[in-house]
Write a structure and sequence with these properties.
2 copies of one chain form a homodimer.
Chain A: H1 2-8, H2 12-24, H3 48-51, E1 66-67, E2 109-112, E3 121-124, E4 130-131, E5 136-145, E6 148-154, E7 163-164, E8 167-169, H4 176-188, E9 192-203, E10 208-217, E11 228-235, H5 247-262, E12 268-274, E13 286-293
Parallel strand pairs in A: 5-10, 9-12
Antiparallel strand pairs in A: 1-13, 2-3, 3-4, 5-6, 5-8, 6-7, 6-11, 9-10, 12-13
GO molecular function, one term (chains A, B): hydrolase activity
InterPro entries (chains A, B): NUDIX_hydrolase-like_dom_sf (IPR015797), NUDIX_hydrolase_CS (IPR020084), NUDIX_hydrolase_dom (IPR000086), Nudix_N (IPR029401)
Protein name (chains A, B): Nudix hydrolase domain-containing protein
Chain lengths: ~290, ~290
């Protein structure tokens, strides 16, 4: 088929025919793969933890409007990452009123909606520059080794002593994949290569987008960095779903296990809608909405 | 098969078997799909424009280390988007030395590497807060309608009068998909729904990551917003590759056409490495590296 396409070239009619073929033969789920929450932020019985004790539950039921597995912990800070002290909290993400001065000229700011825009911004009263705030990307790796997944126990707040995938804020000057590789080295002492994109999970409430890659270790070696107290490979059946640090990690691991179960790894896009004020590790306090998979 | 999996449940041995199956049956390309640049930023004959006149060229040859099609224009500003006056330029993206004052307390900053970090940051000399800079996400839609693609002619700099997909900076408080839908409404007057994630393209030099969704119009209506002088549906064979605004749009459209030609739409991840100082619309001045597809 590929050969035929090459010889036929790029005529309009031919492309039109190919269009229909591509859309019928798409790797991406298209409209049929959309699962939209109808009951956000409520509790559901379709949980990973429960499913481990009731394994006849419909396999994809956890890709449901709501994830909810366990009780809350005592943290009050929002889902965030260790390598940015200014990481947004649920109360401050995008809170323009906290920007009081222009970082370029030092002038005081006013908080107003600029001409032609719709959102409140911090505008310098001296140089007129606008301090735009945008979501931050958190990049990380889901590392597979000998049918196990590498997790790190956090040695820092938030979510101290809870398990996570190695991940952190993407830096300017690097790609998401390079950032994920760097964070894995810093947090798990593991040199990895990225195998495939796996998930993009937006968390609008806290102004974060998680980008998770599947990766593998170049050598079977890992050791905890300063931000981790322990790194360990877990069998998929032994993943500590009761002690995960962040909803994004919970979702990523659940999606991965469901892919493994279904026999096909996919790329996932979705929105994690968190309940305002909830802790990063409260798995009762969010829903996965608009889930699309390729 | 799905039924069998449900009944078998989640025993460790069973998951181990499924693991191998999933990795052999992956929708994502895995290692075999990686195409890494060996000659970044050089010129290549594998171009979309040339291929339109030499259609027996190997179909996937454009997913090569280098894209290069046409001459440069006169713009000197880097690839950027219209809705942020502080959008990073090639010379200022991540340029911490331009942050002179603390936006929270107004104190002067010093530029130093904080303890436990490796990158230079702007640190407030009064309150000690660090002003982290992170890449910005640009979200947009590739809208398919009657086998055509909707493009907008830019009515603003940079890349004035050149064609683009509707796209702009993602805002805090929205998902990437919602941001792409909003930008499409603002720039093309089209109400769309997202069908599938299509591409993530990082541009490290300018601190941007493009996230492009496939989308369709809810009603067959569009009209240019203030930032566009014209919106038009293009046959795939008539896409104005000689007059595109940004390398990210060039790459997205090329990947899309190749997917249509191959009969299978995929999700693409890659890094666009631009030549420092090049214009946003110079298609001789970048390479697509580490291309992965699912």
């Amino acid at each position: 088929m590929l050969k035929a396409v090459q010889n036929l070239g790029c005529s309009s009619g031919f492309l039109s025919q190919l269009w229909k073929k591509a859309h019928h033969n798409t790797a991406c789920g298209g409209l049929s793969s959309i699962a939209i929450s109808t009951n956000p932020l409520s509790n559901s019985a379709s949980t990973r933890t429960r499913r481990r004790h009731a394994t006849t539950t419909k396999l994809d039921s956890f890709i449901s409007p709501v994830f909810s597995t366990r009780g809350t912990r005592s943290e009050t800070r929002s889902e965030s990452n260790p390598d940015a002290t200014t990481s947004p909290s649920s109360s401050s993400a995008g809170n323009v009123s906290k920007i009081n001065f222009c970082q370029w000229c030092g002038g005081p700011t006013k908080h107003d909606i600029p001409d032609g825009e719709e959102k409140m911004r911090a505008i310098c009263t001296v140089c007129d520059k606008i301090a735009y705030q945008n979501p931050k990307m958190v990049v990380g790796c889901l590392i597979e080794h000998d049918n196990k997944i590498l997790l790190c126990k956090r040695n820092i707040e938030p979510s101290y002593d809870l398990w996570t995938l190695p991940a952190g804020y993407m830096e300017i000057g690097e790609s998401a994949a390079d950032g994920a590789i760097r964070e894995t080295w810093e947090e798990a002492g593991a040199a990895v290569e990225v195998v495939s994109p796996f998930a993009q999970l937006d968390i609008p409430l806290i102004g974060q987008t998680y980008v998770i890659f599947l990766a593998k270790m170049k050598k079977p070696h890992f050791s905890p960095g300063p931000e981790s107290s322990e790194c360990r490979l877990f069998d998929l059946d032994d993943i500590p779903f009761d002690s995960l640090a962040f909803s994004s990690i919970f979702v990523s691991l659940n999606l991965y296990i469901d892919d493994i179960r279904s026999g096909k790894l996919k790329f996932h896009y979705g929105t994690i809608n968190k309940r305002p004020g909830s802790s990063p590790s409260d798995m009762h306090a969010f829903s996965l909405d608009n889930h699309l998979q390729c």
